[in-house]
Design goal:
116 residues; mainly alpha; 7 helices; flat
Length: 116
């Protein structure tokens, strides 16, 4: 019986969001702001060169999906400008994600920035 309780407790902790680790409910205005900011960074020329990326940003299902598209955006920008300015531009988007992606994702990104 104790094993069943332990299993149920573990399962509940996995399925129940932890307010520290997970963002609050998705804010539709934040989603639109992030999408517009990413598309603005990509620019007309970038969208012409990367129509799939432009579409993936425009029709992303969530803010978290946009978070993971930052790497693709950085790669696309590197083709249009130098790497340092491309990475800095994508990094400048990070404040828009605060409160919209998990703290762990933000902290992981911030740690990688300090190392780089």
């Amino acid at each position: 019986m104790q094993r069943v309780k332990t299993f149920l407790s573990s399962l509940t902790s996995i399925l129940t969001p932890n307010s520290e680790a997970h963002p609050t409910a998705q804010d539709p205005q934040a989603m639109v702001l992030i999408q517009k900011s990413m598309l603005r960074l990509l620019g007309v020329r970038g969208a012409e060169l990367n129509p799939q990326l432009e579409s993936r940003i425009r029709y992303a299902a969530s803010i978290e999906a946009l978070w993971f598209l930052r790497a693709d955006l950085a790669q696309a920008l590197c083709l249009q400008r130098d790497e340092a300015s491309a990475l800095a531009a994508v990094s400048d988007l990070t404040p828009l994600f605060e409160g919209n992606v998990s703290k762990a994702q933000l902290q992981s990104f911030q740690r990688s920035q300090r190392r780089g």
